[in-house]
Amino acid sequence: MSTDKEAMDVEDDFAVAEPDDTEPVVEVAKTNLSKRRTIDNLLEERRLQKQLADYDFDL
Fold first, then answer.
1. Rounded alpha-carbon distances, angstroms, from residue 13 to 10, 16, 37, 45
2. What's this model's pTM, rounded to 2 decimal places?
3. Matching NCBIfam families, A to Z (predicted)?
4. Percent of the chain at pLDDT above 90?
5. What is the DSSP string of the chain?
6. What does the alpha-carbon distance between residue 9 and residue 14 come to, in Å, rounded to a whole number?
7. CA-based torsion, 41, 44, 50, 52: positive or negative
8. Cα(41)–Cα(22) distance, rounded to whole angstroms?
9. CB crowding 9-34: b at 16 or more within 10 Å, else e
10. Angstrom distance (rounded) from CA 27 to CA 34
11. What percent of the chain has pLDDT over 70?
């Protein structure tokens, strides 16, 4: 470390982060929710088809 008093050059030109980072997160959340709903619908359809196949029509 130097004990001399030297003027330090400070750059004030720095990049400011824009709030654009929130938009892709929203898109990912919508996509994940959409995929989850699709999976839930397919599972429900499979469950209903199994119930229909197991149903005794000779009542």
1. 9, 9, 47, 59
2. 0.49
3. PA3496_fam (NF046101)
4. 36
5. ---S--PPP-----PPPPGGGHHHHHHHHHHHHHHHHHHHHHHHHHHHHHHHHH-----
6. 14
7. negative
8. 29
9. eeeeeeeeeeeeeeeeeeeeeeeeee
10. 10
11. 53
pLDDT at 39: 97
Count of all residues that appear for the chain in the document: 59
Which residue has tokens 């400011």?
A: 16
Give the tokens for residue 16.
């400011």
Residue 23 structure tokens:
């938009």
